[in-house]
């Protein structure tokens, strides 16, 4: 009986904990990059962009850096600061929804 009560109690404690969900956000940043060297500098220093970064893609021709990250651990502003430490100016690309 005591074992059953312990098992049920442990199950209730587990059920009471809220599940921490990752909220992945993808932001396209317009940057001042102009060559493959700039792109490689960013890709070689992804930790500079902060915690929770899951993916970084770069389009040199469009001068865009796309970053997918966990919103619970990072933000657009923090990523902009991280790019600034690499001497890259950036701002979120304005879309129709952001205007």
Question: What do these coordinates show?
Answer:
This protein is an alpha+beta fold and 99 residues long. Helix content is 34%, strand content 25%. It has helices spanning 2-16, 36-44, 76-85; strands at residues 24-31, 53-59, 64-70, 90-92. A four-stranded antiparallel beta sheet has the order 2-3-1-4, covered by helices on one side. β2 (53-59) and β3 (64-70) form a beta hairpin. The longest helix is centred in the N-terminal third of the chain and has 15 residues, at 2-16. The model has no long low-confidence stretch (mean pLDDT 85).
Strand ordering within the main sheet: 2-3-1-4
- Main pleated sheet: 4 strands, antiparallel
The amount of helix comes to 25-40%
Please state roughly what percent of the residues sit in beta strands, choosing from under 5%, 5-15%, 15-25%, 25-35%, 35-45% or over 45%.
Answer: 25-35%
Rg for CA atoms: 20 Å
Q: What labels would you give this structure?
A:
3 helices, 99 residues, alpha+beta
């Amino acid at each position: 009986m005591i074992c059953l009560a312990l098992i049920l109690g442990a199950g209730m404690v587990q059920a009471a904990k809220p599940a921490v969900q990752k909220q992945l956000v993808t932001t396209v940043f317009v940057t001042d990059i102009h060559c493959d060297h700039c792109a490689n500098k960013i890709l070689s220093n992804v930790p500079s962009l902060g915690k929770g970064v899951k993916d970084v893609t770069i389009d040199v021709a469009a001068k865009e850096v796309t970053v997918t990250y966990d919103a619970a651990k990072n933000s657009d502003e923090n990523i902009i600061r991280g790019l600034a430490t690499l001497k890259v100016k950036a701002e979120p690309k304005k879309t129709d929804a952001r205007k």
